[in-house]
Amino acid sequence: MNTISLCMIVKNEEEVLKQCLESVNDICDEIIIVDTGSNDLTKTIAKEFTDKVIDFKWIDDFSAARNFAFSHATMDYILWLDADDVLLKEDQLKFKALKDVLHEGIDGVSMLYHIAFDEYGKPTFSYRRNRLVKRSKQFHWIGAVHEYLEVSGNIISADIAVTHKKSEKTRGTQSNRNLTIYENRLKKGEKFTPRDLFYYANELKDHGKFQKATIYYREFLATRKGWVEDEIRACINMAACYKKIGSEEKELESLVSSIQYDVPRPEVSCQIGDIYKGRKQFKKAIIWYLLAIEIEIDNDYGFTQISYATWYPHLQLCVCYWQIGEIEKSIKHNNKAKEYRPNDSQVKHNENFFKEYLANKAKLE
To answer: What CA–CA distance (Å, rounded) separates 147 from 172?
Structure first.
């Protein structure tokens, strides 16, 4: 059986580190924790699971820290996680099964990453990341911020999910760390790669600097050298910025521009539908909501917000069809939304409304 090294970089993660390590302790044959300057109980907690807790002087470079951690691995494969990631029980079992079938011909394994959830705990925002890689291939991390692991060869896609679980302390907060790193790099006169431009724009957006963010999204798109999923996401994020600024025409223009990179993503279709619905152009809105349901995306490496391909367009179609007098279709789409969210308050409200409407209609007939 192949062996696995877990490599992590941490700083002040006392609230979440234990749950992370407990979830993978039975899977990994070696745990390496690289600490970049904790002043809480992070290192003490780490030492409960491993004697390989190593200090690394922080130099504003995430790739440097991750590559340092990887350099200490000694097992066949390397798994990487962040401190606020966990493997749920079902995914632990799947990982153990994967470990049994790992073989020399596999260079890496991608896994799902669930980062947002609805009130029922179901994932609403997911994408894939290369999580497990063969140590002998010496794959390296690239990028000071929003780093990525450059992987090649035979990469298999597993149905294992890593679940992102933020601590209560950091939930809803926005750190200035990444933005500061980017802005310090700009002050030094560093030339940004297309990836840097994209992620710097994201940081600006997340910090409410919407107008400036749109400038960098456009600069990123102008390079025409980005990953297609990042190009689509840049258009969606740029639209969100224009929405915040109050420029609906530019919001719509940004959403439509995403279509030049691939078929319309359900998220794009629904947001265009929302604009037309808000304008009371219900027939136009219906076209876009139906598109969100009908188009199949043959790529699970991109960002996926499942609601835009399931219950959300059906709920909006319920409203739109009602507005144009197509009652049966309105009821049908509310029922479809109910299949995905049986306890949704709006779905229940609509259901009660239709019951009353049909009962009153029957009395009049």
So the answer is: 22
